[in-house]
């Protein structure tokens, strides 16, 4: 079978879209590759590219009427094509996965006697799927605690500390001395005035 491959990305995006780009599946399970054709076509082909053998292997062809044609040594129990939610969907299901199913799968359509390939889906089949990476979340930050300084309790024996009553007592004593001196001078002035009045 001679295949003329047209790799122009612009034409490919107009005619069809293929997802996902990569699949990692476990042995004996099944997987599905999605293909959506955006224009009228004569049928959808599915091919697998084998990197070891460096060649395309024809898997299955499905025409718009729903008739399927399988490639050489390709069984219905292994590959099946069915429509999705859209009438233009032609999804490939691969059953009973084995290591021999590794490869890159292409959804293709014929346009002007050429086969236009989709973006391709690389399938890897393993016995045990790798564990998802552990979350590396940073530990929650603790809120800073404010340092609260407790005030020294007031001495119950005295209403005020020495820092208060010593200056207060000093000021009171000074005030009393000033008042005493003023009172003494006032008394002397009053006595002089009284003597002058009586002398006259």
From TrEMBL:
Record bears the keyword Signal: yes
GO cellular component: cell surface; membrane
Bilayer topology annotation: Single-pass type I membrane protein
TM spans (from-to): 162-182
Domain Ig-like: 14-118
GO molecular function, one term: MHC class I protein binding
Pfam families: V-set
PROSITE patterns per UniProt: IG_LIKE (PS50835)
Keywords: Adaptive immunity, Disulfide bond, Glycoprotein, Immunity, Immunoglobulin domain, Membrane, Signal, Transmembrane, Transmembrane helix
Keyword Glycoprotein: yes
GO annotation terms (biological process): adaptive immune response; regulation of immune response
Subcellular location, record wording: Membrane
Chief location category: membrane
Signal peptide from the UniProt entry: none
SUPFAM superfamilies named in the record: Immunoglobulin
Family annotation (PANTHER family): T-CELL SURFACE GLYCOPROTEIN CD8 BETA CHAIN (PTHR11292), T-CELL SURFACE GLYCOPROTEIN CD8 BETA CHAIN-RELATED (PTHR11292:SF7)
Protein's name according to its UniProt entry: T-cell surface glycoprotein CD8 beta chain
Organism: Struthio camelus australis
Lineage start: Eukaryota, Metazoa, Chordata, Craniata, Vertebrata
